[in-house]
TrEMBL record, chain A:
Keywords: ATP-binding, Cell membrane, Membrane, Nucleotide-binding, Transport. The keyword ATP-binding applies. This is ABC transporter ATP-binding protein. InterPro entries: AAA+_ATPase, ABC_AA/LPS_Transport, ABC_transporter-like_ATP-bd, ABC_transporter-like_CS, BCA_ABC_TP_C, P-loop_NTPase. SUPFAM superfamilies: P-loop containing nucleoside triphosphate hydrolases (SSF52540). PANTHER family: AMINO ACID ABC TRANSPORTER ATP-BINDING PROTEIN, CONSERVED COMPONENT OF ABC TRANSPORTER FOR NATURAL AMINO ACIDS-RELATED. GO terms for biological process: D-alanine transmembrane transport; L-alanine transport; L-isoleucine import across plasma membrane; L-valine import across plasma membrane. The lineage of its organism: Bacteria, Pseudomonadati, Pseudomonadota, Betaproteobacteria, Rhodocyclales. It comes from the Bacteria. It holds the Pfam family BCA_ABC_TP_C. GO terms for molecular function: ATP binding; ATP hydrolysis activity; L-isoleucine transmembrane transporter activity; L-phenylalanine transmembrane transporter activity; L-valine transmembrane transporter activity. Residues 5-252 form the ABC transporter domain. GO terms for cellular component: plasma membrane.
From TrEMBL, chain B:
The chain crosses the membrane at residues 20-37, 49-75, 95-117, 124-142, 186-203, 237-260, 272-295, 326-344. The keyword Membrane applies. GO terms for molecular function: ATP binding; branched-chain amino acid transmembrane transporter activity. This is ABC transporter ATP-binding protein. Keywords: ATP-binding, Cell membrane, Membrane, Nucleotide-binding, Transmembrane, Transmembrane helix. It comes from Denitromonas iodatirespirans. It comes from the Bacteria. GO terms for cellular component: plasma membrane. It is a multi-pass membrane protein. It is found in: Cell membrane. Pfam families: BPD_transp_2.
């Protein structure tokens, strides 16, 4: 198995609050890796540190054998990590297609001069971007809304659009922050199929999720965070029976804090 | 252009082609119509075009990139003073326009970057306050840099600026063809019109490019924009610099047209006036900036010309000074706008892509 991402002793503190402490984990190429834990366990903080939104206080991330830059989100995206947000964050005044096209930004190079003079290269790049974006909309199944302002899409479709936008940056690792939140059962099933398809097409997936059924059915391996610490990491079936995990979720005598 | 056509109620939707031609013809013959009412109207028309350039540039910063800039007029000042320094008897330098205008634009862009760096982390109200301060700093500099070395000639301003000289063709001299005379205000009008059209084409191209989308993304959600790989720092600086460039060019043209610059032309009220044009027309779309600039330059003048005779006819004397009335009616217009059309006169949805590039797509 080839290591894709390795977190080494990552720690993050906000004043007196320790959001993450000494979190180490390894994600292999081609797997769906789940990150679960009770509310406030530090899952989203982990995402934010990974994607460069926060600078970690300790530790580092190694991606494809090179250390990831910290605090520079656009460089992290360039390396091949894309993310979605827990609360959907689309570009409200753009159409669905334009949202996905914006996601392709980092892979396009047209400069000011090319744009102003409408050089052949710039137009060709723009055409490729448009076509690719449309294909991605097809991929997630919402191409009929390509020219609709994204705000008027349904909730589930907005989630799909956000995934398409993340995929537009051609990532090797796709980090999804609670993609099934607020979805009904049908939508969750469709989402599961989509994530499986994404994995099948060669993108590694890191998944934060509350929906235990989804995580257990989808993930190859799962890590559990509690109070900023990793308390378990294994295949779903084993993690489910782990005492520390059970007490973290349900509370129990072994859970001393 | 199409945005503008679509925004015209009734006519635009039903006869888009005809409306388009109507706008083109109107733009071409506008000075002739204005001349019918008098020279001052032609001057107003020329100024309307300058304000259009300003509104277009500010719209790029405020409307596209979402950076509220209350000191935009500073870039206009930089352009105008560049013209005053390099093409007037003040320093005895008389450079041709094709050096001075680009230089003015470059200085303005530099000023834009200088403003951009310290405000990178600011947003909303805080950004507005700093940019407001920046605008005032530039104006106060112009006002006080006459001592100990006289650079800007202080509050008196600099006069006798060179007029536009297009490779030996002086725009401020009327052309005589036989008995027929073309007044210089016409020449300026068409030259400014060309500049405005050029600006519109440039800005439109930017808008539907990766840069325009990056700006819109940053405006709609900065955190998400960063997360999809947009270097927001560079994009903000680019927006400030490019917006300032248009201000700088407009400033140079203003200097050449007016023949006189002084700090009082670049007060906070002017910044606010340009911002009002952008908001009045509809933020974030090009047609809005054009319509807003035209409306807010022409309307007060029309009111002024109507208010006087009407009052005289009705009351026998002038009760309300037109200047007072002007602010009153302008405020009233703004309030009505906020109530009736909060998205601006031309609330057309701005496109940031070219769907026609899709082969066989939806």
């Amino acid at each position: 198995m080839i290591k894709l991402l390795e977190a080494r002793g990552v720690g993050k503190r906000f004043g007196g609050l320790t959001a993450l402490s000494d979190v180490s984990l390894t994600i292999n190429k081609g797997e769906v890796y789940g990150l679960i834990g009770p509310n406030g366990a530090g899952k989203t903080t982990f995402f934010n540190v990974l994607t460069g939104a926060y600078v970690p206080d300790d530790g580092e991330f190694v991606f494809n054998g090179t250390e990831l830059p910290t605090g520079k989100p656009h460089l992290v995206v360039e390396q091949g990590i894309a993310r979605t947000f827990q609360n959907i964050r689309l570009f409200g005044q753009l159409t669905a297609l334009e949202n996905v096209m914006a996601g392709h930004h980092i892979r396009t190079k047209a400069g000011l001069w090319g744009i102003l003079t409408q050089s052949k290269h710039a137009i060709e790049e723009e055409r490729l971007t448009t076509e690719r974006a449309f294909e991605l909309l097809k991929y997630v199944g919402i191409e009929r809304f390509a020219h609709t302002i994204c705000k008027s899409l349904s909730y589930g479709d907005q989630r799909r659009l956000e995934i398409a936008r993340a995929l537009a940056s051609e990532p090797q690792l796709l980090a999804l922050d609670e993609p099934a939140a607020g979805m009904n059962a049908t939508e969750t099933t469709q989402l599961k199929a989509l994530i499986e398809q994404i994995r099948h097409d060669g993108v590694t997936v890191l998944l934060i999720e509350h929906d235990v059924k989804l995580v257990m059915g989808l993930c190859d391996r799962v890590a559990v965070l509690d109070f900023g610490k990793k308390i378990a990491e294994d295949v779903p079936a084993v993690v489910q029976k782990n005492d520390a995990v059970i007490s973290a979720y349900l509370g129990g005598p072994k859970h001393a804090h | 252009m199409n945005e503008l056509v679509e925004a015209i109620p009734f006519l635009g939707k039903r006869y888009p082609k005809a409306t388009k031609w109507l706008i083109i013809i109107l733009a071409a013959v506008a000075p002739l119509i204005a001349a019918y009412f008098g020279r001052s109207w032609m001057r107003i028309l020329d100024f309307a075009l300058l304000y259009m350039m300003l509104a277009l540039g500010l719209n790029l910063v405020v409307g596209f990139a979402g950076l509220l800039d209350l000191g935009y007029i500073a870039f206009y000042a930089v352009g105008a003073y560049t013209w005053a320094f390099l093409a007037s008897p003040h320093f005895g330098i008389h450079m041709p326009f094709w050096i001075v205008l680009p230089l003015g634009a470059a200085f303005a862009a530099l000023a834009g970057i200088m403003l951009g760096f310290p405000v990178l982390r600011l947003r909303g109200d805080y950004l507005a306050i700093v940019t407001l301060g920046f605008g005032e700093i530039v104006r106060i500099f112009m006002n006080n840099l006459n001592h100990p070395i006289n650079i800007t000639n202080g509050p008196q301003g600099i006069n006798a600026l060179d007029s536009l000289n297009l490779f030996g063709w002086n725009l401020s001299q009327s052309i005589k063809i036989g008995d027929f005379q073309i007044h210089y205000l016409y020449l300026y009008y068409y030259f400014f019109l060309l500049c405005v059209i050029g600006s519109i084409i440039f800005i439109k191209r930017l808008q539907i490019s990766r840069v325009g989308r990056a700006w819109a993304a940053m405006r709609d959600d900065e955190l998400a924009a960063k997360a999809i790989g947009i270097n927001t720092r560079n994009m903000k600086l680019l927006a400030f610099a490019l917006g300032a460039t248009f201000g700088g060019v407009a400033g140079g043209l203003f200097g050449s047209f007016q023949g006189f610059v002084s700090p009082e032309s670049f007060s906070l009220m002017e910044s606010i006036a340009v911002l009002t044009m952008v908001v009045f027309g509809g933020m974030g779309n090009i047609a809005g900036a054009v319509v807003g600039a035209l409306a807010l330059t022409a309307l007060p003048e029309i009111l002024r010309n109507i208010a006087l005779p009407v009052q005289q006819a009705v009351f026998g004397t002038v009760i309300l000074d037109p200047e007072v009335l002007r602010m009153l009616l302008l405020s009233l217009a703004m309030i009505l706008m906020m109530l009736l059309r909060p998205a601006g006169l031309v609330p057309a949805h701005a496109r940031y892509s070219r769907p026609e590039l899709l082969k066989g797509g939806a």
